[in-house]
Design goal:
alpha+beta, globular, Nucleoside Triphosphate Pyrophosphohydrolase, 188 residues, two-stranded antiparallel ribbon
């Protein structure tokens, strides 16, 4: 006899997110869930999480990005390495085009910066809106607005956005390129 009171098995999807940071700003967009979120999405078949994050950033923003190495991966022998994420979040998501019922996203979160030096690259115009959000705006803890889209930032988006900006600043210092120098190199 089949049990009818057993809960439905929980469906989980692997996703990847990239906090795209540059010169004191991070890129966020208005998501259909009514929140400001960084670029990201589902892993494609045969794709590792970092490949997915970089692909999603390019698809959603048009910006080619590179990872900011925040940790040294453990390498054993001749095995290929995958840059570890900054964090892994588990988020409950309502039914969508990927699943007919509520499900969870296991999200690999990376900090990235534009692959090419220069000024902040333009973000897509139109709907949904994209914004370069400043460090000051993230620290202000006020709702973020663009047109008729307004919502407080989720706490994890605010904290990770600030951390991505700080790591991008550190990565620039490590590479010996300040934001103005990078802009000048891009203009040369």
């Amino acid at each position: 006899m089949e049990r009818t009171d057993a809960p439905e098995p929980l469906v989980r999807h692997f996703t990847a997110t990239g906090f795209l940071a540059h010169d004191g700003y991070t890129a966020l967009h208005w998501h259909r869930l009514g929140k400001w979120l960084p670029p990201g999405g589902h892993l494609d078949p045969n794709e590792d999480p970092l490949q997915a994050a970089l692909r999603e950033i390019r698809e959603e923003t048009g910006v080619a990005a590179r990872v900011i190495e925040t940790a040294t991966p453990y390498v054993r022998g001749d095995r290929a390495r995958v840059q570890p994420p900054v964090s892994i979040g588990i988020y409950r998501v309502p039914a969508d085009s990927h699943a007919p019922a509520a499900h969870e996203h296991i999200d690999f979160i990376y900090f990235v910066r534009p692959a090419e030096p220069g000024p902040r690259p333009p973000l897509p115009a139109g709907d949904p809106p994209w914004l370069w959000v400043s460090e000051a705006e993230l620290r202000a803890q006020a709702p973020l607005a663009s047109g008729d889209r307004e919502a407080p930032l989720p706490d994890d988006v605010r904290a990770l956005g600030l951390a991505a900006i700080e790591w991008e600043r550190h990565d620039r210092a490590r590479s010996g390129t300040s934001a103005p120098e990078a802009a000048a190199m891009g203009a040369a």
